[in-house]
Amino acid sequence: MGIVAVRPATPGDIPTVLSLLRELAAYEGKLDSVRIDEALLAEYAFGERACIEVLLGLLDGDAVGYAIFFPHFGSYGGLPWLYLEDLYVQPGARGAGVGRTMMAHMASLTLKRGWAGMAWSVLDWNESAFTFYRGMGAAKANGHVSMDLTGDALLRLAEEGDAP
């Protein structure tokens, strides 16, 4: 199988993380949506405005996966949760335990930090992801549906907030 390990990414890993991120975007059919570059990743993962954490999943010492996560606050319970933005393992390394080891690492961090749990979303067509997460005991979030607000709609709403 190979030796599986997980470690926090460092600034020197930025090119590797971006390469893996682009692979994920290509898999999801969204490569043309990728706007992040080395400077942005450095700023938000390691700079003054750091707001994300990045892990690398290793197989026999080679980076074959990554995860990006950050805290989000659960208002009802009054505790943070770990929100998993991305989890990706290269197809050739799947089945070796890299993804599960990365999830276990984040679960351990969640408990050590005294947070309530972990949350993420899955693309509705990604049956292999659903199978993977269910295999760890994950369940569909209690009726929540992910939504977003971007582009012109975000600009219009922000303009309302700027009004006197």
Radius of gyration of CA atoms, rounded to a whole number = 17 Å
Strand content: 15-25%
Determine the number of helices (DSSP H or I, runs of at least 4 residues).
5
| Largest beta sheet: strand ordering | 1-2-3-4-5
Query: SSE order, as H and E?
Result: EHHEEEHEHH
Helix content: 25-40%
Provide the low-confidence segments as ranges: none
* Span of the ends, CA to CA: 63 Å
What would you call the structural class? alpha+beta
Mean pLDDT: 91
- How would the global form be characterised? globular
The biggest beta sheet is recorded as:
5 strands, mixed
β-strand number: 5
Please provide a written account of the structure:
With 164 residues, the protein is α+β, with helices and mostly antiparallel strands. Helices cover 35% and strands 24% of the residues. A 5-stranded mixed sheet has the order 1-2-3-4-5, sandwiched between helices. Strand 2 (53-59) and strand 3 (62-74) form a beta hairpin. The chain is globular, with a radius of gyration of 17 Å. The relative contact order is 0.13.
